[in-house]
Amino acid sequence: MTLQMQLVAITLDCPDPLALAAFYQQATGLEPHPKSDADFAGLNGEHGLLIGFQRVADYRAPSWPDQIVPQQLHICFKIEEGLGEAEARLLELGASKPDHQPHGDRARVLTDPAGHPFCISTI
User: Fold this and answer.
1) Could you tell me the strand order of the sheet in which 117-121 lies?
2) pLDDT digits over 53-86, tens only?
3) What would the mean pLDDT of 8-34 be, rounded to a whole number?
4) How far apart are CA 83 and CA 105, in angstroms?
């Protein structure tokens, strides 16, 4: 018998939950969770999925791609506009672009302000 589970939240560790939630809110347009605070902030996603951001003391950002500090999580986002346009907007919002880009013209790997890698793709 298969256990029936529904994914309801994905939570990222970070040093500043409200700042990281603001980055993803500006990037995705998701609505902030009304009970967000300095220790835990969230964004309400589609179908009830919450993206959460929790404060962690002595947080160490992932060092992708070398894994000295493992990436811990990798999020992928489908975008409607071109990769270059979306990348430029995300960089303006505070993302960074690592030199290593393993997907060619199909996708871009960026890192959020707390260092978590994420991909954007048109497919």
Assistant:
1) 75-78, 117-121, 107-111
2) 999 999 999 988 888 888 777 788 988 888 999 9
3) 95
4) 8
Give the bridge partners for 118, in sequence order. 75, 110
Look-up of token digits 């894994």:
67
90 closest CA partner among 109, 105, 71, 72: 109
What phi-psi label fits residue 52: left (phi over 0), alpha (psi between -120 and 50 degrees) or beta? beta
Give every CB contact of residue 104 below 8 A, 6+ residues apart in sequence.
Answer: none
pTM assigned to the model: 0.83
**DSSP letters for 29-54:** -PEEPTT--SSEEEEE-GGGPEEEEE
